[in-house]
TrEMBL record:
Coiled-coil stretches: none
Source organism: Feifania hominis
Subcellular location: Cell membrane
Function per UniProt: Probably functions as a manganese efflux pump.
UniProt name for this protein: Putative manganese efflux pump MntP
Family label: Belongs to the MntP (TC 9.B.29) family.
Length: 188
């Protein structure tokens, strides 16, 4: 897998965290740089950790499913991307207002898990494609950290304008990468 493809996957996966960071920046007016850093760190760690878990779980089955790796990548990335698109479009149609809540580490951990579940499935795809998981997970974690940190402050500045659009873009990127992997493996 090339660096550009990995960057697109990292960017696509980070869009959920980016959208939630925008929401956090919007909904927690009392939060500052410390909370923005903590948000970005938690999201980055979860986005890096989940593909590793998926990868090592997927490696146990990689030999048995290696002839189907391109189909698995297409289905998993297509499903994740499609789910992101549906959720973003639903949110665009029925926007939620900010609930009255305080910034808490417990809520942040729940957000970290929720935004990184998709990365678990990507880790399984990485296992069947025999990707260097440490490099890929680190790349995904750093990309997510940077996007989330920026998203927190963008939420404070621009409000909810970009959250769902970013999630739509992330979904389209993941679907496109799934198609690219499928086409390369099928016709190469």
């Amino acid at each position: 897998m090339g660096v550009f493809t990995l960057f697109l996957i990292a960017l696509g996966l980070s869009m959920d965290a980016f959208a939630v960071s925008i929401s956090d920046g919007l909904c927690y007016p009392q939060a500052g740089r410390k909370q923005a850093f903590l948000t970005a760190l938690v999201f980055g760690v979860f986005q890096a950790g989940m593909p590793m878990i998926g990868y090592f779980a997927g490696r146990t089955f990689a030999g048995a499913i290696s002839s189907l790796d391109h189909w698995i990548a297409l289905v998993l990335l297509g499903f994740i991307g499609g789910k992101m698109l549906i959720e973003a479009i639903r949110e665009l149609r029925e926007p939620e207002s900010c609930p009255a809540r305080k910034f808490s580490f417990q809520l942040l951990l729940m957000q970290g898990v929720a935004t990184s579940i998709d990365a678990l499935a990507v880790g399984v795809s990485f296992a069947v494609m025999d990707v260097n998981i440490f490099y890929a997970a680190g790349f995904i974690g750093v990309t997510t950290f940077l996007c989330s940190f920026a998203g927190f402050f963008l939420g404070r500045i621009f409000g909810g304008r970009w959250g769902q659009k970013a999630e739509i873009l992330g979904g389209l990127i993941l679907i496109g990468i799934g198609l690219k992997i499928f086409i390369e493996h099928t016709f190469a």
